[in-house]
Design brief:
The chain has four helices and 15 strands. By secondary structure, the protein is an alpha/beta fold. It has a single domain, classed as 2,3-Dihydroxybiphenyl 1,2-Dioxygenase, domain 1 (Roll). The strands form three sheets. The protein has an eight-stranded mixed sheet with strand order 5-6-7-4-8-11-10-9. This is Glyoxalase.
């Protein structure tokens, strides 16, 4: 296959023990559109599930407009919102165990609309970034940024979920958790290709 934007992630479907409870949490916390879906799953899983989901927003006030309601709705703070050399952001773990990061590159507030998401990014903690990159480029994903075997970001339409690859240990450190984990990812990637596939780290890409 050739690399093009014909291959992209349209949605993420989280496996959760209680769909109604999870929907109530996510409506209060993040209020995302069809890019986030839920399905029932009790598949065994423990520790770091090999991914985090990032909401990229405009500025610190917008970060807080997501993180504060998320924590009030039951999310566990993993990294309290704070400034750093790259911007402002924080990380929480949802009641279903999924890890969410909300971040802005700006450190100053200029009055941007609250609770508006600019990008949704799935960061996969890959065992072998190069192997995973080869898999995705072989399935039509175009590389937008690449830093050797350390980090890869794929191009995506504005309405799609962006996909990025990071080493597993680095991804866990970014999320504020141990890299140890086992069991099911409890995540299905919805994509635009005609057939389903499974990547080298066991993430299922569901066609349609």
């Amino acid at each position: 296959m050739t690399t093009s934007l014909t291959s992209a992630l349209d949605s993420l479907s989280l496996g959760v023990p209680d769909v109604d409870a999870a929907r109530s949490f996510y409506d209060a916390a993040f209020g995302l559109d069809d890019r986030l879906r839920l399905h029932e799953s009790s598949a065994p899983t423990s520790g770091f599930r090999g991914f985090s989901i990032s909401l990229v927003v405009a500025e610190p006030a917008v970060v807080d407009s997501f993180l504060i309601p998320a924590i009030e709705a039951g999310a566990e703070p993993l990294k309290p919102a704070s400034k750093s050399f790259w911007g402002y952001g924080g990380v929480v773990r949802a009641p279903d165990g999924a890890i969410w990061k909300v971040a802005a590159s700006s450190k100053k507030n200029t009055g941007a609309p609250l609770r508006r998401v600019d990008d949704v990014v799935l960061l996969v903690g890959a065992a072998d970034v190069a192997a995973s990159r080869e898999f995705y480029t072989g399935h039509g994903f175009a590389v937008a940024k690449g830093f050797g075997r350390k980090y890869v970001e794929f191009a995506a339409r504005d309405d799609a979920v962006k996909l990025a690859l990071y080493g597993r240990k680095a991804a866990a450190k970014d999320a504020g958790v141990s890299a140890d984990g086992s069991g099911d990812h409890r995540l299905v990637l919805g994509w635009t290709a005609g057939t389903s596939a499974t990547d080298p780290d066991g993430f299922v890409l569901q066609a349609g």
